[in-house]
Structures are given as C-alpha cells and as structure tokens.
Amino acid sequence: MKIRRFTACTATLLLFATGCFSDGHVAKNSAASGTDGGTIGTDGGGGPKVPDVTKEATFKAGGSIGQVWVTDANEGDALLLVDKNGTEIDHGTADRLGSFIWRDVTPGDGYTVRHSDGTDVFGTPEFKVLSQTDVPDSSLYDQPLVQGTNYVKMRDGIELAVTVRLPPGKTLADGPFPTVIEDSGYQIAAPGDLLSAAIAAVGSGQGVDTLTDPLLPSTSTAVSSLILPLLGYASIAMQMRGSGCSGGDFQLFDVPTTYDGYDVVEIVAKQSWVKGHKVGLAGISFSGISQFFVAGTKPPHLAAIAPMSVTDDIYIATGFPGGIFNNGFAASWLEERQQNAHPAPEDGAQPYAIELVKQGDQHCIDNQKLRLQTQDINQILADNPFRVPKLVDQRCASTWADKIDVPVFLVGQFHDEQTGGHFPEMISKLDKNPDVWVSMQNGVHADSLGPATISRWAEFLDLFVADRIPSFPATVTALSGELYKAIAAGSSAMAVPPTRFDSFTDPALARTEFRKDPRVRLLFDSGGGGDKGLGALQPLWELGFDAWPVKEAVATSYYLGDAGALTTTAPSGASEVKYTGDPSKRPAQTLTGTGTGDPWAALPAYDWQPVAAGAGVGFSTPPLAEDVLIVGPSSLDLQLKSSKTDTDLQVTLTDVRPDGQEMYVQNGWIRASHRTVDATQATATDPVQLHLLADKKDMPAGAFETVRVQIYPVAYAFRAGSKIRVTVQAPGGDRPRWTFDTIEDGTIENTIQLGTSKLVLPVVPGGKAGGKLPPCPSNRGQPCRAFTPASNGG
C-alpha cells in the first residue's frame, strides 16, 4: 500500500473538522506493507502548509529512530505530522487510548504534531526524529538503579521496566557485582523471586512449571531470575518495549527495540555497584536472539554475549522455511506476542502487568498507552509471502552478527522444535571476530541449558564478563539434578562438570587457556544411553573444528536411481519416478498433547509416520561399508517436473539402521516457485535461495527444472551397516511443533528425473563415530520408527 498524500484542501479540512478521517493509519499500514515507497518526511517544503499553532498541545509527542509517537490525545483526534517548514507530512487518528505512531519517518529536527478543535490549532514543542547514528547525550545514562523494579527512559523518551536481582542474601552495598542483562519480551521484569519459589517447589517435589504466582517471572527467563543469581551475578531483567510494564508498542526486533538494548547496557554499566563498569548479555530463546541485535549496535561498555537456542533469520529459518509459512509454532508464537502486547489490565496482557496495574503502579499504567499501535504481525506476514528486505532484514539476527566485536559464546540444537536448526548459517558472519565459541548438538530447545554446555557457558561469563577464575557454587551442583528434571520435562541429566580452571590464579592466563578451545564444538548422541539413561541430557562424544562451515567437509554426491537406490555413481539412462503430494495422509505433527507429548521429555511419544503410499518417494544407499560423518547443510538437487505451476516439497534425511529402525536426522523444504538461488552465497551443499517476488518462477508445463532443496545443517555419524536415506513428500509430519501452510492438496503430481537428481552431503573424509550405535529411540530430538520402504522401493 502506498502512502496517501493530501492536497492543501484536505489538510485544511483535517485541521478544522475533527475526526474527518475514520481510518487514519496510513503511515502505519504502509510501513507494514513493506513497500519501498513508504518513507515519509520533509522533502524541502513541497507539501501543503499547515495553519500556525495557537495553543500548546496537551497531548505529548516524541521522535524515535525513524518513528514518531503520540500519547494523551483524545480518542478520534485528527493528528497531523508537520516538519520544520510547517509542511504537512502525514496524518493519523488517535486510538481509543489517545495514541498514534508514524513509522518510516525521515530523521531530522523540527517536527511537531498538531490538532485542531475547529477553533484553535494545538501543537507540540518541536522534536527530533532520530537515526541509528545519533548518539544520545551521556547524561541519559545517569539513571540510578535500585534492587528490585526500576523504570528507565530510553533515548526516545519511552520508559522500560528493568528489574535488578542480586545473589541470594546480598544487597547493592555488597557490590561491586559482575553483571549480566537478559533482554526479553516474555514476562521477565516481574518483581517476584523465582529462585526462592523454584527451590521451594523442588524441595516439595513439585515442578517449577507448577508455580502460579502472577508476579513471578516466566521460567523462560530463568537465566536472569534463577541461574545468574545462583552463579553470583547481579542480573538485570530488561522488559522489551511493548510488553509487560514497559512502554511503547511491540514490534518484533524493530530498530527502536534494538537500540533500547544499547541504552540499557550503558545505563547499567554506569552503576557504582557494577564490577568494572562492563556488562554481559545472556539468555535463551527470545533473550538469546535479542543479544545479536544489541551487540550489533556496539555499546561501548558491553563485555560479551552468551546466547542460546536462537534463530538467525525470521523469514527463511523459522517463519517461512523454504518459502512456506510455518503456521504451527511460528504463527502461534507470534499470536502469543500479539496477545501479550494488549494493554494491561486487558485480557492477554502479561499477568504481572495486569497485577501491578490493578495495584496502582502508575509507571506501569502510563506505559500501556501505545499498546494499541502494535501491528498485527501475522497479517503482515500473510501480506508478504515473499521476502521483503526492507521489512525483514533489520529483524534478522544474521544482519547484525558481522557487526559484533565482543566475545561470543553460542549454544544451539540442530533439532530445536521451536526456532529450528537453520541458525548455524550465520556463524560465518562472525568470522572477523576472533573470540567466538559455538557449541552445537542434537536435541531440543531447552537442551542449551544442559550440563555439557552450561558449564562452558558459565566459564565463559566468569572469564569474559566477571574477570574472575571460574567456579561453581555448591548450591548449583546440589540443585542441578532436580532443576534439570523441572526444566526438561522430567529428563535426567549428567552432573554439571567441574570447572577446568581450579589451578589458575590469574583470569588473564585462564582466558588464554579458554581460547585454546575449538571455535566449533559438536556434541553427538545426546540422550543416546549414557549412565543417566536413555534420553538424558548427556552427549556421548564430541568433535572440535576451527571454523564453520567446517573446512574438512567435502561435497559428496549420491545419485537417485531406480527402485529407490541411492548410489555414489550416477546410473545410466534417465528414468523417472512420480508421486502425488498429500499432507492429509500423515499427521501434521509428530507430537500432540502434554506429558509424553512434550518434546523436552526424555523419550517423547512421537507419532512419526512413514511415507504414505503414493504420496512420496524414498531413496536409500546400500549398507555402508564404513562410517560416514556429515557436518553442515546438505542439498537435494532435483530435476523436477510438476503437473501444476507450483508445488511444495519436504525433504527428510534419515538413518536406516541395521536393527530395522529408522532415525530422523534432518529436514529441508522448498516452494518450487522460490527456487532461484543466490549465486553469491550458494554452494554445492548449501542452496541459498533469494525468496524475492522479483525472482518468482512458475514451474514450466511438461518440462524438468532444477529445484535445489536445502537440508538444514546437522552433525551426524551414519555408522557402518546403516543406510543413508532421503525422502521427498508434501510438507508436514516430521516436526513436533511446526506445521505448514502448504499448497499441496493431493492433486499435484510431481515427477523426479533419476540419474541426474542427487543428494549432496558434507562428508568429513575418514570421520568416525565416537561411540556405538545408540538405541532407538534415545537421541534427543531424533524420533525413531520401524523402517517402511516408500512406494518406489527406497
């Protein structure tokens, strides 16, 4: 949608006839559309002039980065955005809370907002619309913080809720403390004591998930509310704008939200009780992803970041895998964020905000005023099924990653049921940064907190944030087993390994030793049957590499052949195989319900159905003569013909084991019309697609086309005696929480040309499994089923 421009006549009508326009959200909606024509701002005075101000406005207005906000107007007030020349820029109508936001406004000085009651013209004082390069006056950061809940002003005047938590029994007078911030849109700044409540719950035999006090922070933010205080840190729970008791509107990782992180880092670092006046960032999931954005702004007093369970790209990685909308987890998560952005005390708002508003917390009450300006994120996605760089790029962690110059410790799982396994694609963006350590493993979303990784994570924080010799308090070791059962749906866990630096006395020497760790640490067969049992948080072996993508991996081709064969040499001739995609022939997800339907459980009750007859094809190698170790993304390069102009493909890589069981390894997806690859990034094992509307290509009638499908990155060892298998079918049925808004409906027939189509794997020559074949089921995040050949024999 283009921005609607007005003549001088309509500007006059707008000022002198209150409420003439009923929608009034032109700039807001045009920004949501993602069109490149959406920037509004002064162009040298070429627009209509606005009558002069006769009275100062009672409503308030201010400039954010590329935005203008208005509060305290009357519902229905017609508002004009005016530049320093007195020129009308755009209009809007105050919502029922008296607020409005213009987006995509050109940075600059001298803006005002005006309104007329038919007699007088009310105007605000002039204000500046900020740019990303504007650095606030240092006085902004002279805001003292106290133990408990605080409210702090950002560079644009928006107020955020920030809660300071200290180690048990400590006060600020006991400082200075090593300090870490967790930045989240979940219920994080709630004032309750989750640590004490969790210890009491565990002591009484209950799970942390049974806690119901609305003033407790969400267990999703346990890093700041539970883990960091136990480790002796002051933790700062930063409530993202537009959520909880923070002001502003919620927009997923927009630029003002990103620079809030910069401001909070600098405010916290100035506190007298912060050790070294340097702070770290830590957190899992939402608060893991946010760290990439904040660190990319380069706050001067940021020491290091330690993100867990992240996604790299909101479009391709999680929102639109292969260009197909994830209407399962992605849609439901966005809807939940939309609900949480409701103004408290309305239904859907975060429980602690509802409670504090009812208690009369005036800051929390005032900070709800802009909530109705939150945009409908799912509608924005529905309106933009192709990648719109203007809309997406600034909201992707990978966009900010190459700007990060502080030490990074990243943990993630290849089979994360929420954020997905695409995140390793941004590791190379960190290549210029010498202090980066990445740990990856099979497993699910919560497994980043597992003992094998949390120990290294804690060492990293101690060395690069706290500037001290790492140590684990006895309380951490004593509580870890029970806490893991609570966090990971009853799963057992190995003991937290002891610190490796007990013999050191100088943190600088300890950091030198830590830097000897491999840049990339790969943990294998987590849950595969160690002494803590099947499905436990316990990897069985590991490998280290000095880069990602790993330099040792070699693109190795396996060709699709007759009778479902998968061979290292291309078969002669060019035969074909057909299938009709029909997602209704399998369950949409592999898990439903609760309890054993929880993907974090030790052995979830997966319902992972085989390829339905006629609805897909499979291809398998002969039994392997030796182990095959793959590390990285893979590519299924198909010569494909379709009966319609578009089709959706799901590719699944599996291990057909000597015991007759089949173990899930990884997935990939593509909508065929999105098949254009980025020639500057694609490799033999990694077909990176553009997903731009301008590159949309229908499938030609009656002809084969090359369609490359990226299989998400993974590290896995196929043992000697196993068969490598790849299947192709309609999307759905292989993931616990993802579903797909697929165009497949049982009427599209696809034909694959054999001999020329191939699977390309990133094989590490001479790579060996570090342990025996784990039982099936056992590996976390990798369901098993009895092997059933597809209709074509593979």
Please explain how this structure is put together.
By secondary structure, the protein is α+β, with helices and mostly antiparallel strands. It is 18% helix and 26% strand. A ten-stranded mixed beta sheet has the order 10-11-13-12-14-15-16-17-18-21, with helices on both faces. Strands 22, 23, 24, 26, 29, 31 and 32 form a seven-stranded antiparallel beta sheet that branches. Strands 1, 4, 5, 7, 8 and 9 form a six-stranded mixed beta sheet that branches.
Number of strands: 33
Largest sheet, described in full? Answer: 10 strands, mixed
* Structural Rg: 28 Å
Strand order of the largest sheet: 10-11-13-12-14-15-16-17-18-21
In DSSP terms (H or I, runs of 4 or more residues), the helix count works out at 16
- Could you estimate the helical fraction of the residues in percent? 10-25%
Helix vs. strand class = alpha+beta
Distance, first to last CA = 49 Å
